[in-house]
Amino acid sequence: MNRMRRMIVGVAMAGSLLAGGVIGATIAGPLGVSAATSSSAAATASPSTGSGKFVPNENATHEAGESAAREAQENAGQVPTVP
Fold first, then answer.
1. Is the same domain home to 23 and 43?
2. 9 with 24, same domain?
3. Taking a C-beta distance cutoff of 8 angstroms, is the pair 26, 18 a contact?
């Protein structure tokens, strides 16, 4: 009987590990996928090109909300540090 209990406990442990893995993958799976993809907001918020040179956003709607200090930094070719 002792051998049978060990087998039952082993099968129960393996089943719970498998069920926990499936539940964890179901919950955390979409989070990992969404973190790996870029959103349109993140893509537009990064005003630079792949060459490493800062390129300011000169869109009229963007410019209307900019402070003079930020515009000065953009015109100097610096990544803005002020809002």
1. no
2. yes
3. no
| DSSP state for residue 58 in the 8-state scheme | -
Whole-model pTM over 0.90:
no
- Expressed as residue numbers, the domain containing 56 is 39-83
**Cβ-contact 31, 25 below 8 angstroms:** no
Query: Is residue 44 located within the same domain as residue 74?
Result: yes
- Measured between alpha carbons, how far is 29 from 13 in angstroms, rounded to an integer? 23
For residue 48, the cross-strand partners are 54
Query: Do 30 and 50 fall within a single domain?
Result: no
Yes or no: say if 73 and 81 are a contact pair by the CB < 8 Å rule: yes
Q: How confident is the model over 12-61, as pLDDT tens digits?
A: 999 999 999 998 888 877 766 665 555 544 444 455 445 667 777 788 88
Torsion sign (Cα): 74, 77, 82, 83: positive
- How many domains, in total, are found in the chain? 2
Q: Which position has the token pair 């918020």? A: 45
